[in-house]
Amino acid sequence: MATRISMAVKALFKKYPMASNAVVYGTLITGAEFTQQTMTKKILVKDSEREQIDKGSLGRYAIMGTLIYPNILYIWYRWLDRRYVGTATKTIVKKLLLDQFVLTPPLLCAFFIIMSAMEGKADILEECRRKMVPTFQTSCMFWLPAQTLNFIFVPPVARVVYVGTCAFIWINILVWIKRQKY
Question: Which residue stretches of 40-103 are H helix?
Fold first, then answer.
């Protein structure tokens, strides 16, 4: 039974790679926001301070995680893997530097700006200005080791799912940063 399910999942990813990645990545990102809200609104507070889950926020993360990020990541990793083939140290270093210093800054800016726009903030750039540098610094500490493992051990077809799994952890960090007053 498990083998049949595994084969069916592989077939879906092969036949519909962007859609499959979008569903998995979106589920993980929305799940990370749900986890973060559960912790901050239900578990780490006194009974009298508990709040309802913010469904609007879950919807915003679902949009980012299903419609925006997985499509960019799918195209990016497909290009990166075709341009830099193999797992030689020099190749891995090139991929890491490109991923962290070319792709990550625009993705982080997009995160803060698009989320601010969906939240209806008057100045959609303000949060990005305040939080971009500390977020990028934190992302270097998290993503450089995670992506090293990705580029060495993960087959190209599984890159977006691997990144989505890591992103579940990363989004918990990012959501925490977003909630901070910098």
Answer: 55-63, 69-83, 89-98
63 contacts: CB under 8 Å, gap ≥ 6: 118
Is residue 96, in this structure, part of any structural domain at all? yes
Residue 34: partners with Cβ closer than 8 Å, 6 or more residues away:
53, 58
Q: Is residue 75 part of a domain?
A: yes
**Torsion-angle region of 179 (φ positive above 0: left; ψ -120 to 50: alpha; else: beta):** alpha
pLDDT digits (tens, 9 = 90+) for 38-89: 988 999 889 899 999 999 999 999 999 999 999 999 999 999 999 999 999 9
Two tokens, residue 12: 């879906």
CA dist 162 → 28, 62, 80, 166 (Å): 11, 18, 15, 6
Residues of the chain with pLDDT under 70: 1-2, 182
Task: Write down the pLDDT at residue 1.
Answer: 66
Is 91 contained in some domain? yes
- Residue 35 structure tokens: 């986890």
For residue 118, how far is the Cα from the chain centroid? 18
Cα-based torsion angle of the residue sequence 152, 156, 161, 162 in order, rounded to the nearest 10 degrees: 0
Q: How many domains does the chain divide into?
A: 1
